[in-house]
């Protein structure tokens, strides 16, 4: 005669209702209904190497993501970046500068962002004059 394994005995007990605590049923009934709340924005940022040939750079290096509503992602200052995007109604080209001073060196930093803002697809490409300007222009939204 074959003796039942511990796993089969446990499965039989679960099917019989022996592993379901009776107190869990009323608590589940009081749980809030799941919501279909989606974030306001999910944006993915890429950086490209500048070209000296005059060709348009192609952003290929993934640098991070930004999620707004709730504010999170890889961005070091997600809350500040999401606030700036909300104030511009999702138009990344309308985000104002933040206070800061940079040198006048020219070391271009091409950046590109793809994603969704309130259900609308977003694609924005921009080249900053140098790494410092990435953090100053556009309120630091592109500053990874």
UniProtKB/TrEMBL annotation:
Keywords recorded for this protein, A-Z: Disulfide bond, Protease inhibitor, Secreted, Serine protease inhibitor, Signal
Primary localization class, coarse: secreted
First and last residue of the signal peptide: 1-29
Subcellular location: Secreted
UniProt cross-references to Pfam families, sorted A to Z: SSI (PF00720)
InterPro entries named among the record's database cross-references: Prot_inh_I16_SSI, Subtilisin_inhibitor, Subtilisin_inhibitor-like_sf
Entry keyword Transport: no
Residue ranges annotated for the Subtilisin inhibitor domain, each copy included: 62-130
Quaternary context: Homodimer.
Family named by the database record: Belongs to the protease inhibitor I16 (SSI) family.
Protein name, entry field: Subtilisin inhibitor domain-containing protein
């Amino acid at each position: 005669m074959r003796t039942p394994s511990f796993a089969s005995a446990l499965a039989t007990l679960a099917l019989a209702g022996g592993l379901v605590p009776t107190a869990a049923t009323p608590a589940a009934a009081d749980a809030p209904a799941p919501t279909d709340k989606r974030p306001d924005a999910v944006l993915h940022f890429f950086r490209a190497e500048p070209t000296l040939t005059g060709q348009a750079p192609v952003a290929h290096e993934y640098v991070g993501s930004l999620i707004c509503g709730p504010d999170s992602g890889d961005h070091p200052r997600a809350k500040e970046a999401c606030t700036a995007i909300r104030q511009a109604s999702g138009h990344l080209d309308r985000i104002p500068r933040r206070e800061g001073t940079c040198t006048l060196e020219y070391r271009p930093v091409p950046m590109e962002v793809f994603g969704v803002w309130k259900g609308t697809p977003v694609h924005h490409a921009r080249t900053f004059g140098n790494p410092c300007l990435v953090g100053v222009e556009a309120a630091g939204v592109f500053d990874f």
